[in-house]
Specification:
Number of helices: 3
Mean pLDDT: 97
Bound molecules: CU-O-CU linkage, copper (II) ion
Radius of gyration: 22 Å
Strand content: 35-45%
Shape: globular
Number of strands: 31
Structural class: mainly beta
Length: 510
Amino acid sequence: MSPPLRKFVDPMPIMNTIKPTSKNKKGHIYNVDMREFRQKLHEDLPATTLWGYNGQFPGPLFDIDQGTPINVKWENKLPSRHILPVDKSIHDLDTQPEVRTVTHLHGAESLPDSDGYPEAWFTRNFKDVGPFFERKTYHYSNQQRPLTMWYHDHAMGITRLNVYAGLAGMYILRGKNEEKLQLPQDDYEIPLMILDRSFNRDGSLAYPRQPDQDSESPELPDPSIQPFFLGDTNLVNGKVWPYLEVEPRKYRFRILNAANTRTYQLFLDSGDPFYQIGTDGGLLQKTVQLNQLPLAPAERADIIIDFSNHQGETIHLKNNLGPDADPEDETDDVMQFKVGTTLKQKDTSNLPVHLSRIPTLKNNRITTLRNIKLASVVDEYERPVFLLNNKKWMDPVTEKPHIDETEIWSFINITDFPHPIHIHLIQFQVLNRQPFDLDFYNKTKKLVFTGPPTPPKLNEQGWKDTVSAPPGEYTRVIVKFKPHTGRYVWHCHILEHEDYDMMRPFDVVD
Ligand code: C2O
Ligand code: CU
Ligand code: CU
C-alpha cells in the first residue's frame, strides 16, 4: 500500500507540446525515445523511477493539424531489465528479450506497418526485433476526422507493465472547421491523463508480483500475471491528487482514462454538470449534459466545465466508488480546481448545442454479423484466462472483414464484469445493448433476453473506438472497415486482460 500522501498539494502539470526535429517530403519528423528517468510524482514521495517517452510522464503532447502528415521515429533507449515483475510463463516470453517496446497510436487510421503490432516490437537501438517488425519510422497521415488520441506501448505480453511504467502520452488531431464553434482554447483547453498507481515508501512503483491466492491453489509462477490491477492513488498528468488554478470561466478538458483496469465514474462535488462535446472519435452531434461521466480504460471524453459561478471556491473532481466502497479507499478523489476571482480577459468562448454531423452507418448493407463471446477459462495454474470467442492470440485469424464493407459485431459478455473492447484502425458506432439471463446461459448455453435493447447513452452516440461491454449484456456495434487493408488487432483494453489473452489479430482484406 502506498505511504500516506496529502491531497491537493502539488500543482497539476500541463503537458508540453512536442516540436518536430526536421522535415522531409513525407512531412515533419519527430524523434521520440523511450528512456528510464526519475520524476517527482508527489511532494511527500521520493522521486519515482519511470519509463517514459522523451523522459516524460505523461509523454509529450502531439498537437497536430488535420491533413498534416507526420513521421515519428520511436526509439528504445531502455535498459535490458524491466523495472516491474515480468511473468515469463505466458506467450513464451522466456525465449524473448525481457524489455521490448512498440508504440501504438490509439484511435488512428494508421497503415499496418505504423500501427504498432504487438509482435512488431524492438529492443534498445533495434538490436533485436519481433517477427512482425517492419520499419523504424512510423507514418501518421492525419487525414481522418479530428479527435483526441493517445499513444502507448503495445508489446506482446508486457503491455500492462510498459504502460504502468509510464509509456503513455496524448495526441490531439485538430480540425480547422472546429474553430467556428469558438470552444474554450489555448490556456483554457487542457488535456488530462487520468490513471491510478500504487507506490512503495521509497517512491518506486508498486505492482504485485503475484495475485492473492488461497493455500489450496497450485503454486504459481513467480512473477505471475494477475487478472486485474487497481492502484490506491489517482494521478492527473503525472501528479498524485493535484490541484489546478482556474479562472472563473469556461474550460475545455480533453480527458483520457489511461489506467490499466480502473473505470472512473467522474463527477464534480459542486453539483455542476459536465458538458460533453466529444468522445473517442471526436465531436458529438450535440452537447450532452451529464452529472456523472463513466470512463472505461482507453475511452476519451471532451468536456466543458463552467467555473464562472464559483469565484474563490474549490471544487473537486471526484470518482464515484459506489455504495459498497471501502471507507479506507481514497481513490474517490481525482483532483481539485481552485477557482480564482479574476479573469485575464472576458470569456468569449461558446457552449454550443450543435457540434458536428455524424452520418449513421445503420442504413449500410450489413455483410457480416459476428457474435463474440467474452468468456474465461482457467490455465494449468488455475489462473483465469479471458478470451474472445474462446480463441487465444496464437490461434489462426478468424475475423477477416472486407475493406469498405459494414459489419455488426455483438459482444456477449458471460463473465461477471465489464470489458472495454477496442478495435484498431476504425471508429465504430454503438447500436444498442440488451440484457440476457446470465445464469440460464451458464447452465444451458442458451441466450434468453430479459429485456428490450437499449440505445447507447447520449454521450456514446458518436464515433467510438472503445466500448464498454457490461456483464450479462449483448453489446452491438456497427463497423465499416476502411481505409486500409492488412493486419490489425482488437482486444479488451483492461491491460491485464489484453496481455493474457484477450486480444486477437484481424485482417482487412480486398
Ligand atoms: Cu490503446 Cu490496441 O490499444
Ligand atoms: Cu488502438
Ligand atoms: Cu477484459
